[in-house]
Amino acid sequence: MKVIVIGGGIGGLCSAIALKRYGIETEVYEAVKEIKPVGAAISIWPNGVKCLNLLGMKEPLRALGGNMRTMAYQDFRRGEVLTRFSLDPLVAQSGERPYPVARAELQVMLLNHYGREKVQFGRRVTQVEQDSQGVIARFEDGSEARGDLLIACDGTHSVVRSSVLERPVERRYAGYVNWNGLVECDEAIAPADQWTTFVGEGKRVSLMPVAGNRFYFFFDVPLPAGLAEDRTSLRDDLSRYFSGWAQPVQTLIERIDPQTTNRIEIHDIDPFSPLVKGRIALLGDAAHSTTPDIGQGGCAAMEDAVVLADALQSHPLDAEAALRHYQQQRVDRVKDLVLKARKRCDVTHGKEMAVTQQWYEELKTETGERIMNGMCETIQGGPLA
Q: SS in 3 state form for the chain?
């Protein structure tokens, strides 16, 4: 069996690595000549960590992951701690530790594990076809690839998706803008082993430790889409949006490098089905584009890859049945993740400000138990719970 994988990001490479474990031949095609990950870093929660462990990357992941041992919410104006608690109960209940990692370094790890030389870069898919014998992917440069199956890991703007659904889908603006990047750890901003989040006014500023004595930081602000803002105005924009916020936030704004800080308007896509059609399957953001509010976008793609490979292994004589099994295992799970992230997004970013204010008040008496129970419920819904 030969599987064509469209996309060399997290979902595509995890899929190719998972299939390779079972001796299934893969060809990976990536649209760009050089992958530049969207976003500075990613939080890999225990469900994703378990998937990477299974795929043989346990030790490399730990070398990249930040030492995140506690979690805290702090008041936006005074900087005082609203709640702070250890993540050890989460680790004990889920069986793994979360690892925030720089996206570029995660990408290198995946490429090295699969084999960078095996990925065909600069091959942008324009059309896919299938029949009873297999699939054909046609590329912008006029070339084509043939295989028994095709796995579309071509992201939130997926070209292949409409071939599966037989209709276009629209991305939904989530209502906020996210700025993110990496900066050197500084205890004047936040403890180096803590996920620290300042909240207020429907906005947030968050920092997570990654390897190399760095914080992954992000700023969220509810804003209209399409504002004329870019790196040239970035520091002034953040200073304006976070005027009056606590000194650690002001220090962070001073320290960031506008040239390496990303500004992203956050979108998701309403959950949909089917995820497969005949010999073609959607995976990762192509199948379930979500906001980052519960940190499960990348983890869900890792789960997809593990479930897909297991389905093909357990249905060796009927590839289409394998893909249907993959869909059955994933469609409700990914719908749940998209909607959970959307609900969390609305509370965090003040869609109904009275609800958000109530959340701020609840944080003052939060022991960590309620938050971690919610995290564990999400994590344990994965295939390797």
A: CEEEEECCCHHHHHHHHHHHHCCCEEEEECCCCCCCCCCCEEEECHHHHHHHHHCCCHHHHHHHCCCCCEEEEEECCCCCEEEEEECHHHHHHHCCCCEEEEHHHHHHHHHHHHCHHHEECCCCEEEEEEECCEEEEEECCCCEEEECEEEECCCCCCCCHHHHHCCCCCCEEEEEEEEEEEEECCCCCCCCCEEEEEEECCEEEEEEEECCCEEEEEEEEECCCCCCCCHHHHHHHHHHHCCCCCHHHHHHHHHCCHHHCEEEEEEECCCCCCCEECCEEECHHHCCCCCCCCCCHHHHHHHHHHHHHHHHHHCCCCHHHHHHHHHHHHHHHHHHHHHHHHHHHHHHCCCCHHHHHHHHHHHCCCCCHHHHHHHHHHHCCCCCC
